[in-house]
Amino acid sequence: MFAKIIFVFLSIFLVACNQKDDAVEQQDCSTAICTLNFVTITVSVKDASGEAIVLDSYEVIDTETGENIAADFNGDEYQYYKEQGLYPILSDANRVQYQNSTATLTFKGIIDTEAVINETYEVGADCCHVSLITGNTEIVLE
Description:
- By secondary structure, the chain is α+β, with helices and mostly antiparallel strands.
- It has one domain (40-141).
- It has helices at 2-16, 75-83, 95-98; strands spanning 40-47, 57-62, 86-91, 101-111, 114-125, 130-134, 138-141.
- Mean pLDDT is 82; it is low at 6-24.
């Protein structure tokens, strides 16, 4: 009798445990309803006293592809960001590239040809917007 009860419980347990594929299921974005907000993930660079640091240049490298996606940020808006010590690392303009996945980006800040910042970020995107998963967005240079 005891063996039959054990067999029943094991049978239920085995039926309840199905094999799920660990692959990420791709969302169908054709029916997604998104806000009209345009998301930009930025990094703030300041000195110890809280003053904005203006970098001579910076790069945002996708570690998988080696692509510098900071080249997408330029113009008057970028100049305003730079004066405030804010540097965009990813925006909704890159959403499709990172949709339904995650990526590792490396932010490199340069002053007088010397790399003064080397920070790593994990980012992703859903059907509507990019998002920051991990990474320090407030950098203080000594």
